[in-house]
Each structure stands twice: as structure tokens, then as C-alpha cells.
Amino acid sequence: MIPQLETQRLILRGFCEADLDAYADMCAHPEVMRYIGTGQPFSRGESWRNMAMIIGHWQLRGYGLWAVEESQTGEMIGRIGCWQPEGWPGLEIGWSLRRDYWGYGFATEAATAAMNYAFNQLQRSQIISLIHPQNVASVRVAQKLGEKLQGTTEILGTEVLVYGLSREDWQKM
Description:
The protein is of the alpha+beta class. It has helices at residues 20-28, 30-33, 44-61, 106-120, 136-144, 167-172, and strands at 5-6, 10-13, 65-70, 76-83, 92-97, 126-131, 148-155, 158-166.
């Protein structure tokens, strides 16, 4: 079962079929997808398969990305959580929000909850965030989380920045 987390303004919960319209809307937006994966928007079918993969990650790893719901409206606004598919360089705290929800601090708020989950429940000693070098907004989120630039790596054929935070440094924050 996928645990539910709550923050001041958000609910992090498992994806359900009713999320497809909002998720497909997010994944079809060129600005949202510009720095994710191949940088190309998803079709509705690709969004469906991606949601299924996210749910499968929970099944295989015991953790994953949550659907992020705005508490006041019940609107599904994005995906944020712990991600480590096969071949990944570490447990990633990743975030992606629908375009209309950028700039309100939702990514930092939900990613903080995911990071706390990774350190407290999953007992991880290190978390990372993999960020396209031109994604200035995501770099700012990583920095607000306390992550520091640790280097670069290649993911899916693209060079990305590796931001990270150790459990030890997190405990000092």
C-alpha cells in the first residue's frame, strides 16, 4: 500500500485512474516536459503508461512518486517523490508540477516531505536530485532542500547535474 503524506497545503498519495486527465495535461505541456526524459511531451497513451510505471515502481521498490493534490481544491497538480529505477545513480527526490502550479512553493513543500520520508522511513544515508543544467527553477528547489552540487552524470543520453544531501547534513539543518 502506498502511504499518504500531508503537508500544510498538499496531500501526497498514490496515483489512481481518475488522475489521468490532469496527468496527461501535465505531460503534454512542452514547458513542463522540456527538461524531463527526452524533453518531449507525452501523448495521452504515453502518460497512461508512465502513470502505470510509477505505480509499478512502488510495487517493485516499496517507494516511489506520489500524485500531489492541492488540499483546498482536491486538484492533482503533479508528481513528487522517491525514484530509483534500474541503473539510476542513487535514490532521487524528483518533482514535476503542472504549469499552472509553478511559482507557489509547492515543489519545495512536497519534495521536503519526500526527503523526510527517504531519511526517516526508508533510512537512506544519501538522496540525490538529477537536474538538467538549464533547469534553473529545479536547481533552486534543490538548493532550498539543502542539496549541494556533487557533479554530473549521464541519464538517458543526457548530461545532468547531480545535487545531493547526506543524512548527516540533513540532520544538521
